[in-house]
Amino acid sequence: METYIPISYLNDFIFCPRSIYFHQLYGRASTRLYHSKDQAKGLAAHQTIDSQSYSTDKTILQGLEVFSERHNLCGKIDIYYAKTKELVERKKKIKIIYPGYIFQIYAQYFGMVEMGYTVKKLKLYSMDDNKNYPISLPEDEPEQLKKFEGLIDAIKQFSLSGHFSPNINKCQRCIYRNLCDQSLC
Q1: 162 CB contacts (<8 Å, ≥6 apart)?
Q2: What is the dihedral of CA 128, 134, 137, 141, to 10 degrees?
Q3: pTM (two decimals)
Q4: Please, which contacts does 75-83 make with residues 24 or more away whose CB atoms are closer than 8 Å?
Q5: pLDDT digits over 12-65, tens only?
Q6: Are 110 and 70 in contact (CB under 8 A)?
Q7: For residue 62, which phi and psi values (nearest 5 degrees)?
């Protein structure tokens, strides 16, 4: 039986393929042991979604678990507005729209569509500055869709013992740097 790839891995893998392995080392340990201040703030900002207390409106789905058989992905959505058929991925603060952000909402989109929901619009929402960033549907961005699928293949084929090219800028900010081979950076 093949296991599903958590949607959160898409962004993590782009940051550093090794981060997924190191994240697993912590297992069920409290995230307070290894999360940075920024990650703790992001986690706190998602608390209303995770607890499904963002809204009591029944037409607003929050924290719904989704699965994509087509892409072998699983995870949760942030918010889906059933009236407008809009899927929203919330971030604490968006300074740059990273490919990982787009791929996470693509994964949520495919999960929802495969589960029978109609999704007409995608949006990233930056909570700190209350800004919205519309994202095109994957079918309307064939090159981006190809990159999304390539990323999933790269995750499936990744080997921790394989070639690794450290990025010193990322390594210095990585919360797992104490577990990683720092001689590479």
Answers
A1: none
A2: -110
A3: 0.87
A4: 75/6, 75/7, 75/8, 75/104, 75/107, 75/108, 75/111, 76/7, 76/49, 76/50, 76/108, 77/108, 77/111, 77/112, 78/46, 78/49, 78/108, 79/49, 79/54, 80/112, 80/117, 80/119, 83/59
A5: 999 898 888 887 777 666 666 666 677 667 677 678 877 778 888 899 999 999
A6: yes
A7: -140, 135
